[in-house]
Amino acid sequence: MRRCCKIKELQINEEIREREVRLIDVDGSQLGVVPTKKALEIAEEKRLDLVNVAPNAKPPVCRIMDYGKYKYELAKKEKEARKNQKVINIKEIRLTPNIETHDLNVKAKRAMDFLKDGDKVKVSVRFRGREMGHTEIGKEVLDEFAKITADYGVIDKAPKLEGKSMVMYLGPKTE
């Protein structure tokens, strides 16, 4: 059985092994510290479950509730929270230090499409061989790229040399 959400499993009814527990009623009022057997009897009278909500407390805190309904409400809240999340993807565009203007514009146009969709863009310039001695050319390429895409994105992380490539992150422009 696949579970849709991460609900931590609580001890219910006979699974509670403590001698006595602090009991909370359905409406939230405290009934005090009572033996576990008496707490189970009270829960059975009300046709509800005895749920250990704070097992690490001294004595453990148990609540009388409908456990199935409680799990359902938690799953519903979690599903609602997931529905409201926006997943931000990071798309990567690779350039070379000696890229031609037209090629740079084509890559920038692609990056603008990503930024319009709300994705972040990782722009990297890869250096090979002797190009490592002229990393400033790569920085100029990235600056030019940022200038072209300025209408749709802003620089999240400035160009930084990481190993054999210089990396810059662009984020979508917020209006």
UniProtKB/TrEMBL annotation:
Family note: Belongs to the IF-3 family.
Protein name: Translation initiation factor IF-3
GO function term, MF aspect, one: translation initiation factor activity
HAMAP family xref list: IF_3
Domain Translation initiation factor 3 C-terminal, residue spans: 88-173
Primary location group: cytoplasm
Domain Translation initiation factor 3 N-terminal: 12-81
Known function: IF-3 binds to the 30S ribosomal subunit and shifts the equilibrium between 70S ribosomes and their 50S and 30S subunits in favor of the free subunits, thus enhancing the availability of 30S subunits on which protein synthesis initiation begins.
Keywords: Cytoplasm, Initiation factor, Protein biosynthesis
Subcellular location: Cytoplasm
Subunit field text: Monomer.
Lineage: Bacteria, Bacillati, Bacillota, Tissierellia, Tissierellales
PROSITE patterns the UniProt entry points to: IF3
UniProt organism field: Tissierella simiarum
Signal peptide: none
Cell inner membrane among keywords: no
